[in-house]
Every structure is written in C-alpha cells, then in structure tokens.
Amino acid sequence: MSNVIGSVSFICLIVFISRVTCYEVPSAIIEVVHPKGFRASIPGEKGLTLFAFHGRINEEFEQTDEGQFSADVLGPDPIGFWTYTNREVHLKIGDVIHYWIYVVKDGVEYERVSLSYEVKGDLKKLTPTSFKLNLYWLNVLFLVNIDLSHDCLPYS
C-alpha cells in the first residue's frame, strides 16, 4: 500500500513540476513611436502578475542589471497585453534596443535574457503602430477577418 501511495505522490509531483516549468517567456513585441519613445508588450496569460522590462540602447547587458531604463508593469492594458511604455528615448534607424524580461506567472519567477530589437525602416511610417498591432491581435485571437494588406494607420 505504501508503494502505491509513494508512486501516486511521485506522479503528482512530476505533473506539478511540469505544469510549473512549462511557461516560456515570450520576446516582447516592440513598437517604435515617433517622434520619440517605444512600447514593449507581451500577450497576457492567465496567472501573470508581473511583467518587468529592462533595456539599454546600443549597449548589450553583461548581466541582468537595471539597464538605462526599466519598469514593472502590474497589470494588462484593456486588450490584454502587458505593456511597458517609454516616452523619453529618441530612437533612430540602426539603433538597437537590448533588453531582458522578468515575469511572474502563477507565483513562479521567469527571466528571458539577451534579447534585442533593431530599429529599421522609415520611422514616420511607424507612427502610431498600435492600431495595426491591435488589429493583428484581433485577427489572431478572435479569428476576425480584417484586411491588413494595406497601410491602415489612423493618423498620417
């Protein structure tokens, strides 16, 4: 009888550990905002309680330090994304945002390090990108058929 209880306990422990360790922190979706700033977002998931973004411009991290800018995000935006917004940094084509992310999900801490995003293209065409991003996620999440083949930005 004790072998059965031990086996069941072991199986329960394995199932619990596999559920806890299955989460993989996604790379951030980076949106450059003109004339200055950017947003970094990750999709919301049940159990998320913290999203922390740490970044540097054109300088890689040696460890997981604070960086040139960082912030903790304690909740999702109205459409379910956890978003860090920086309205201070001036970005130009060729700049690289080096960053790492810290997330708490279901009480467990996760990190994803050594991430980067290079600013490319005409910055004026990136203003504002959130409208297009939101339509994209409506397509993905709700299977809404929205044509994204043309430039549908609400502002020029």
UniProtKB/TrEMBL annotation:
Q: Where is the CBM39 domain?
A: 23-124
Q: What is this protein called?
A: GRP6
Q: Which GO terms describe its molecular function?
A: carbohydrate binding
Keywords (alphabetical) are:
Signal
Q: Name the Pfam families for this protein.
A: CBM39 (PF15886)
**Metal-binding among keywords:** no
The UniProt entry, under InterPro entries, shows: BGBP_N, BGBP_N_sf
Q: Does the keyword Signal apply?
A: yes
Signal peptide extent: 1-22
